[in-house]
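ASSEMBLY PREDICTION REQUEST
Request ID: AP-0331
Submitted by: J.K., bench scientist
Number of chains: two
Total residues: 770
Priority: normal
Notes: Please return the full assembly, not individual chains.
Input sequences:
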Amino acid sequence: MRRSFPLRLFHPSYRTQLVLLLLPFLLGVFVLILLPMAATFLLGFTDYDLFTAPRWNNFANFGHWLVDQLFQRALYNSAWFILIAVPLRVTGALVLALLLNRSGRAFGFARASVYVPTIIPEVAYALVWLLILNPGFGVVNLALQAFGIQGVPWLTIPFTARASVVVMWLFQLGEGFILMLAALQMISHEMLENAAVDGANRWQRFRHIVLPLLVPTLLLLSFRDIALTFQGVFVTGLLTTENGPYYTTYFLPHYIFDEAFGLFRYGYASATTALVYVVTLAIVAGQVLAMRRWFRLEELD
Amino acid sequence: MKAAVRVLFVSVGILLALAVVACGGAPPTAVPTNPPPPPTNPPAPTAAPTPAPVSTSAPAGLSGEISFYINEGADEVEGFEQLAEAFEEQHPGVKINLVNIPNDDEFDQKIAALYAAKTPPDVININYRRFGQFAIKDVLIPVDDYLKASTVMKIDDFYPQVLDAFKFQGKQFCIPQNISSLEVYYNKDLFEKANVPLPKAGWTWDDFLNAAKALTKDTNGDGKIDQYGLGIAPSTIRLAPFIWAHGGELVDNVDRPTKLTLDSPAAMEAFQWFVDLQNKHHVVPSKADEATEGDQSRFEHGTMGMYLNSRVETPELRETIEEAFEWDVAPMPSDKTTATILHSDGYCISKDGKNHDLAWAFTEFANGPVGQSQLAKTGRTVPSMKRIAESNDFLVSSEPPANNKMYLDMIPNIRRVPVATTWLEVEGALNNEIQRAFYGDATVQEAVSAAIQNTQEYFKQNLTDLGSQ
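STATUS: Completed
Returned structure:
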């Protein structure tokens, strides 16, 4: 009797239930994301050093971007990083999902292996890479040596350091991989079987059935990945390359951290964070527009 | 009615869940986040920044708790714990909440957040190179009046140049705990094995280079160097003593710097000599070797003859080397003159702290004769108080280094970088150029021009900051 007591007293409508269930999340979003975001935007227009009260300085922070070489370098690095890493990550997630979307114990293990790097704590992940890429006794250089190839100090040469950070980020594509896997499993087997009966080969089935059905997921994933990458590789990059050599792996999140906490320019750092927000919002808007257009085209078909 | 109770339950649950989320989202700090000390209503009027402290002669008047933030390595923190305990024993009812944040970035982040929340550390131990950044923000209190009234310490007790490093616009802000400097840690066994004369006071750049050459070896004959003569980080605070020793200058005016002066012939020659250690003589680890194993690790493992660092590493070296080999310290080699660079941390008291008297009493204890002897015995510091530095508490120890007197002999040759609000940015830009030259990715000429150009803005900012005060 006692167990069912509360339930008998409270019969909320479906709508109320929805609202109640969503409430914690919405509150969280409001308190932890929207409020800080609004505060960041406002602080972006101030001169604030964390010690004394913020003072309005209008657009001075934004103007400072034009003369701030470190900012420009970080922005440039981040932009290049996105251009190279995002296509690789999305393609990687798709290819791995296609390869591993099968039953069997071995495939289960392989799927888990793909996901694991994503959930390793960042510091541990960075330390593992430091060992792998160590010029003297790292696995990579020892393997190269076995073939008579002289290894290089990967993390201290600008080009290879950048490439290494991309590769580290590439291995953390677990979430995208899961998303692609789910999308693949939603494609009806019948449709594929019918196509096979009609004489479509593997490639044709992929090209004309699977890929079109995956487009919404691919779009979603790409946009999400751009936003994520813009803010990602913070700890890993910091611990492996230490922003170097010569600032070649110095990305916007590092820059914002240094300005805010190392140099106490919180107002200016807020303005730069606001820039990241605006770009991210623009990307989300692009995502919505692209999805709409895609579905309209589909309806026309 | 009862439905309302239920809703209340749900809301409480949500709040709890949110609290958990908020805690989980906090940055990963390995330290207990001590709550700010409660206002303890000290007996003295709180508003007056210059109360005549009678705290030391009447310890009974002290009560409450204060926080004390340090940024130390694992082997150094114990000395500070003992210091806090000793103070608490002397003053029953008083509590020092010692918080160590070993990681520099985390330390910066935590400190910034605490000051922003107006609950700053009551006492914070900071390096003099960072001090200008804090002083300009007007978040520390000057201690001139406390110092004048103190029965434990007098201005004359300290080496003057280290007090100067914590002065800002004519006022004394922090009390330095140490007068450390850059020195040469050397592996005595390797020197003797290679028949190289041991370093001694007055040794020259040539002696230094010859020793480094003799100690750089391929010990197992595989064609690769596995013992280096010298380890030195390509950075501003390592390069500076070489520039000074050769008669050059880092900046035009140490009290009011307006530009880097590395383009003088003397400075350029010294810079070139420094870079040659890597690119011409190959007596320091190459880029790849440096990335394979860092200098300090090499020295600790007995595969590096000399290693340049300050006194701060002594506790760790004692801990890791143990009896593996004999080591000692030597002064920086001389060229046209002898020069080394000041390394010093000071106890600074936050303006927004709630208990200035207690904060001062602790600062006074930690840097008075008792505290300084105690910390010196751990090996961490070269005491800033003359009579402690000259006492056996510092000079004699059962553990290496044996040549502690060297630090005192070098004191007249200690120089320092300027106190400027943007000094760390200047160093950051200059470090980048020093690295480029050191690893052969730029000529000294190119590095110097770039450094001068890239730091212009920071010096201008410093002057603006000072002008706005």
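REVIEWER COMMENTS: Chain A touches chain B at residues 6, 9-10, 20, 23-24, 27-28, 31-32, 49-52, 67, 69, 134-137, 152-153, 155-157, 238, 244-247, 257, 260-264, 266 (CB under 8 Å).
SIGN-OFF: pending second reviewer
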